[in-house]
Amino acid sequence: xxxxxxxxxxxxxxGVFYRAGGPDQSPFVxxxxxxxKGETMALLESMKLFSKVKAPLGGTVVEVCAENEQTVSxxxxxxxxxxx
Length: 84
Hints:
The chain is an all-beta fold. Helices cover 0% and strands 46% of the residues.
């Protein structure tokens, strides 16, 4: 796996990272999940507003880098994705 084939998805805003749409729901993605460009991977909550973390490209999720309900900062790695 070449380094340029792996893309890091980073937080676009500071806020609380949520892997699922709700407490009783499954995570949007897990390692091994195949995603399409624009697909929702997680949510970030800032000041009671939710922003979708969208896949920047099609590929396979390699790693989830942040913990559910963790406060993250702008630019913090959230996922790594292997380019399709």
